[in-house]
Amino acid sequence: MKKKLKLKISAVMLSIVLALTMVATPSIFTARDVSAEEDTQSQEIFNNWAMAAMITNKPKEYFNEKERPDLETAVIYTVLQYGVQANTNKEIDVEEFCSKVNDNFAGIKDFKESQLEALDTQGVYTYDKANHKIIIPGGGAGDGLICTYLGQNWEDKITKYGKWIDFADPSEDPYYIALDVDDENKIIAYRSIDASKVSANLEIYHSGWNDDGDYIDRDTSYMKDDNGTTKAYLPYDASYHVGYRIKIEDGNNTDPVEFNEEDLGEDALTIEFSSQNKNILEKDADDETRVTAYEDKGSTVLDYQLKSNGNPIFEGQLPCTVYNLSITDSYSICLLPSESRQLSVKVEGMDQDQLTYEWSGDCKIDKVSGNTCQITAPSETIGWEDNKNIAVTAYINDGKIKIGTKKESIRVANCDLSIIYAKSDQNPSIDAGGDTLKVGQTYTITLNGADFGWNFGNGEGEKRQTFYTLDFNLNGESITATEKEENLSMKENKMTIGIGAGGGYPNRIIKVNQSGTLTITGKIYRDGKLFRETPVRTFKVEGNEVKPSEPTTPSQPAKPSEPATKKPTQPTVSVKTTKLKSVKNAKGKKMTIKWEKNTAGNGYQIQYSTSKKFAKGNKTKTISKNKTTSYTIKKLKKKKTYYVRIRTYKKVSGKTYYSGWSSVKKVKIKK
């Protein structure tokens, strides 16, 4: 026999999950418009019935539309409708009370006062026969048995779903119920739902803007059914929302009923999860509803619990795979008119042999074989605004399950290169004109036309061939800058070459400290071979020579055993790149930028622009503390898309050194 109930009703009330929002999913079943008042009232019906069944110890006393519910439970349910308040007696006229019992249930039509005396009040109310009153004293009973609200369906009637769990007796199996209510808020039926028809799974998804500029919740789900097992396949270098989805196959509905945490709003179950390999997936340090995939690629498992008031209602494991799908290591692909090239897709984090591929695009595609294909460019050049695309989609299980798609932009051009220059306060993409430079002035030298899409086939890792070189010759002394981001200088600092300032083409920042003649030549490489070379550009450098400070001559000759005084050398400084985590639109035409902490430098430099390639209108914000990991930029333009990147800076001996830029993230300003 079930143990007697011992907790106060007030404690039981705290155990009930209150849900005051409609939780129907329109894509699964037809929703019906209801007011907030109607929705709140229907939720109270579920809460009160669950509590009444708990108090009477009859949570398994089911009834259908043609049956009468248990009278003891029905009466206590009606008592609860009047409200139970501690230390407060409430008196109800019996005739009114009996009428309300009849109104509450479709299966009760003739409940009378004469039936009250035979019912167990469970201490919830008192029947005053002499005065024909129902007295509600504000006390009661309960135990560890709790019915957690899961969600509701609006079709021809309202159906509330719940799960009974006895936390006081773990040996008791949990079970599921459905409570049907009609348009007049009468309880029609209280039904059992087979546990095999209910599932609750973690769900990883992305929310974002669609092509029409509308914000879409759960825009992309990464959940896949792999031979009966739910798995998540997540693209590398991103952050994701973590939610849940409850699915109920109710025989009264044609389609399954589904709920998620957004449907329930504030009354959703709380999600607790942890990764078995935090190098692959890790909970976001700033947002516990998100998971990040910034470090390694591969497979791991998320252990999770869905809780109500701290009690676990569901628990399980979600297998996850973080992968990186790429066609080329460069930014887009550049082709000469009518040129044909072979492309191959590379997958990291998954076994390439288990994948199949499908190629598609705006150009001619042939010679498809496994992970490779050949593309042929149109016969005419194409401007930036008319770029073509090539895409590859990866599948598992012999093409039955789509994992993801990688798209690359294709530009058709002739690749005409030139050297252009600009002063430090000018737009580096526009040539300043003339052929004279000033000693001590800072300039940006740009390899114009060297779109990074030409950086194709140059390999990677130890076999990597540099994409570009800039050869400088000042008065017969030469120095070469490559794509390796490092600071360079000629002997005695006659000329210094700093790291580029970003932009659509390769560039370097120079400062010439000696007058004379400076020549600059640019080259780019493709497939490890010289592809294009600029004409030599010659500058006349004018002004007083800036001499480096000379070492102090000692007043006494140095002893033979003492080392000779050496001129200080330029330090070689390497600065670690910072990883950009997320860029989000915040209310008031703002965007909030988050990045991983990088204490290898002194601070950060954020650059943002409405230009995808940072070719113009760039704005920069310097963050002076290396422990800072977020920043909000204000006064942005509504309906504009902004592109954001970040780099680290480090100060050594009075000089500032920069890392390379992070990958670029974009955000559209909608609010």
TrEMBL record:
<dbReference type="InterPro" id="IPR013783">
    <property type="entry name" value="Ig-like_fold"/>
</dbReference>
<protein>
    <recommendedName>
        <fullName>Fibronectin type-III domain-containing protein</fullName>
    </recommendedName>
</protein>
<feature type="domain" description="Fibronectin type-III">
    <location>
        <begin position="576"/>
        <end position="671"/>
    </location>
</feature>
<keyword id="KW-0732">Signal</keyword>
<feature type="signal peptide">
    <location>
        <begin position="1"/>
        <end position="24"/>
    </location>
</feature>
<dbReference type="Pfam" id="PF00041">
    <property type="entry name" value="fn3"/>
</dbReference>
<dbReference type="InterPro" id="IPR003961">
    <property type="entry name" value="FN3_dom"/>
</dbReference>
<feature type="region of interest" description="Disordered">
    <location>
        <begin position="541"/>
        <end position="576"/>
    </location>
</feature>
<dbReference type="InterPro" id="IPR036116">
    <property type="entry name" value="FN3_sf"/>
</dbReference>
